[in-house]
Amino acid sequence: MTILRTRTPQVTPATAASLEPFRFMRDFMRWDPLRDYDLGAPTAAFMPSFDVKESPDAYQFRADLPGILEADLEISLEGTRLTVAGKREEEVLKDGERIHLSERSHGHFSRTFSLPEDVEGEKVVAELRNGVLTLMVPKRPEVRPRKISVSLG
Question: What protein family does this chain belong to (predicted)?
Answer without folding.
Answer: Belongs to the small heat shock protein (HSP20) family.
